[in-house]
Amino acid sequence: MLVVAALSVGCSVTTPDAGSPGAVGPRTAVVEDPDPQPVADDPAAVLPVTVTGFDGVAVTVTDNSRIVAADQYGTLAETVFALGLGDNLVGRDTSAAFPAAQDVPDVTPTGHSLSAEGILELSPTVVLTDTSIGPRAVQDQIRAAGIPLVYFDPTRTLAGVADHIEAVAAALGVPGTGRALAERATSEIAAATDDTPTSDEPPKIAFLYMRGPAIKMLAGPGSGADALIEALGATDAGVESGLTEQFVPVTSEALISAAPDVILMMSKGLESIGGIEGLEQIPGIAQTPAGRDRRVVDMDDGTILSFGPNTGKVLRALASAVYDPAP
Fold it and tell me: Are 11-34+202-323 and 49-173 in the same CATH fold?
């Protein structure tokens, strides 16, 4: 029997279909306030500062007044806002879709490919990026133009949230603000984890990455989804089934063998196969406990694996979607 703890305000759940009687049914986990809350108001920077990026190159930043932040997950732009430097952000990636960044120019108009022209037109004083986005030739072109460009670790993990925040803050000349934000994020993650329901028989959750019926990947160790699932007090179905890679193509037999109680997906991935009805047509889904109960949870693509300052909010929204009883 699940022991459901009270979850703090800050998340909501959309239930398009309650599913079979007594089942939770498909749900969309929504962070009610997706805007990063600034930990400081326009913090004063100590510049110039020289930092060594993830690529091993030492970069000197002399001005943070015009920042371009672009990675696959929207994490860098989210961090800039949470540091209190949102007014300095002049360019972002598509995944940084939270309301506060809506009017900031998107430098990845085709999805996850950088536009050199779009970035240079913004006259940035510093560019924050990582290897999750490219092409590398564009990033090289920006450096060749004399603009400081700092690479960060592209790996997104629950344990790495604080270090990532502090690395971004150091590059922008606000290390003290970075420490404060890292401490807040760590505290919020811990509180959300502590408030997550517990069970003698934790649910088994499978994270499925799909883009149309032809691309079906099951997440395993190191995917980032495994850390979220663990923080939710659940068991990762991919890890338990013996996967050794972050994502692997999944067969109907593997899905049935994994036997997830809950299927977790990105919202656009679910949309790409026609929603819950389309998912039910995928071979093997109907033969899993999650498929039989239509127990599917989806979350915005740019939110679920961003592992930035909003991670505590993300965990609370997911916990509510996974555990709260159907209305």
Answer: yes
Residue 93 to residue 73: CA distance in whole angstroms: 8
Query: Do residues 204 and 261 touch, judged by C-beta distance below 8 A?
Result: yes
Give pTM, 2 decimals. Answer: 0.89
Taking the chain, what is the end-to-end CA distance rounded to the nearest angstrom? 18
226, 236 in Cβ contact below 8 A?
yes
Q: How many Cβ atoms from other residues are within 10 Å of residue 230's Cβ?
A: 16
What is the CATH topology of the domain spanning 11-34+202-323? Rossmann fold (3.40.50)
CA angle 27, 33, 37 (to 5 degrees): 145
Asked if 10 and 24 count as a contact pair (C-beta separation under 8 A), the reply is no
- Calculate the alpha carbon distances from 326 to 19, 24, 302 in Å: 9, 5, 26
Strands 204-210 and 89-91: unpaired
Question: How do residues 194-217 score in pLDDT, each as one tens digit?
Answer: 999 888 899 999 999 999 988 899
pLDDT tens-digit profile of 22-52? 346 899 999 989 999 999 999 999 999 999 9
| Three-state secondary structure string covering 183-200 | HHHHHHHHHHHHHCCECC
What sections of the chain are H helices per DSSP? 75-82, 116-120, 136-144, 161-171, 175-195, 225-231, 237-240, 252-258, 267-272, 275-280, 289-293, 301-304, 311-323
Domain ranges for the chain: 11-34+202-323, 49-173
User: Which residues, 6 or more positions from 304, have their beta carbon under 8 angstroms from its beta carbon?
Assistant: 225, 228, 264, 266, 314, 318
* Topology given in CATH for the domain delimited by 49-173: Rossmann fold (3.40.50)
Determine the Cα–Cα distance for residues 127 and 129; give it in Å rounded to an integer.
6
Phi, psi (degrees; rounded to nearest 5) at 219:
-75, 145
Find out whether 124 and 105 touch, Cβ atoms under 8 Å. Answer: no
Closest CA to 223 of 200, 201, 204, 206: 206
For residues 190 and 154, what is the distance between their CA atoms, to the nearest angstrom? 23
